[in-house]
Amino acid sequence: MVNKIFNLCCAILYQNMSISLTHKYSELYPSKTLENYVASYFEARNESDKPQEITICPDAYFKLIIQVLDGKIAAYFLTGLWAKEIDIVVQPGIITYGIRFKVIAPEYILRREIKSILNSVEQLKTEYFDIDKIAFTTFPKIVEQFESIIAKRLPREEEIKSNRLRLSQFLYSQYEDIKAGEVASQIYWSQREINRYLNKYIGVSLKKYLNIQKCYRAYFQIRDGEFFPEKGFFDQAHFIREVKKHTGKTPSQLYKGQNDQFIQLKNMKHK
User: Do 147 and 172 fall within a single domain?
Assistant: First the structure.
């Protein structure tokens, strides 16, 4: 069933990917008000007349995805957090719009857990998030509508716990290797409580989440043809093993396939 959804919906995790003439990708970032909850918004267009097989690697975000064909919503779904690679078929003519969410968004924006769809997806009714009211015009105009919808769902400032904000701010401001215990000490929230929180909402521990982040950030190095880890891995064998666990491929295989099977790697951006 899940594979059928992937093939129908085309581009589940289309972040930062396409560079070919027939696959066009655009990305915009959230306003300051929403930056603790949203990583980015993206638009991906498959302008080819043929399907394309692509492998998508975990990136430590979960997504709200809208598929549009001929100006109408063809599919609408929520992904959980991905801890492993996924093979998808990108169908021709589909425009994919997506919102990449950070770890505290389930509690404060979605107001639900997503642990039940870890490594999976959930189809949604278009009334959810008022997606049925969006006018699919230009990408910047669509993002304005996304921002308005999300801002309306944000709780009052006094209802947002400061330890959640510190967690989000710290996780996405660090590009160096960091251990779970260091996160806890830096944000003044115990590792046990952070684990309980993340397991409740997204279905993984802090250590597991950091490992997904670490491998995602290693893709920047792999993209540039560097296959020996700078930080965060014991040695090259550990680096290869961890990358393969999350992507199904070795670093050199990812590098060789970045213009074809792994084209997501080519346009990745630090943010």
Answer: no
Tokens of 250: 């070795």
C-alpha distances in angstroms, 56 versus 12, 69, 86, 186, 237? Answer: 9, 22, 5, 32, 23
Where residue 221 sits, what CATH number does that domain have? Answer: 1.10.10.60
Q: Is 212 inside any structural domain?
A: yes
The vertex-75 CA angle with 71 and 77, nearest 5°, equals 130
Q: How many domains does the chain have?
A: 2
Place of tokens 């709780």: 155
- Which residue segment(s) compose the domain that 233 sits in? 158-265
- 101-117 tens-digit pLDDT: 999 999 999 999 999 99
Between 181 and 257, whose confidence is greater? Answer: 181
Q: Is 32 within 8 Å of 79 (Cβ atoms)?
A: no
Positive or negative CA dihedral for 165, 168, 172, 178?
positive
The H or E element that residue 30 is part of is none
Q: What angle do CA 261, 265, 266 make, to 5 degrees?
A: 95
Q: Are residues 24 and 76 in the same domain?
A: yes
- Cβ–Cβ under 8 Å, residues 217 and 61: no
The two beta strands, 86-90 and 52-56, are: antiparallel
Q: According to the model, what pLDDT value does residue 24 have? A: 79
> Which pLDDT score is estimated for 22?
60
Q: Please tell me the pTM assigned to this model.
A: 0.80
| 152 in the same domain as 165 | no
Residue 153 and residue 109 in contact, taking contact as beta carbons nearer than 8 Å: yes
pLDDT tens digits, residue range 226-240?
776 666 665 676 666
Residues 120 and 240 placed together within one structural domain of the fold: no
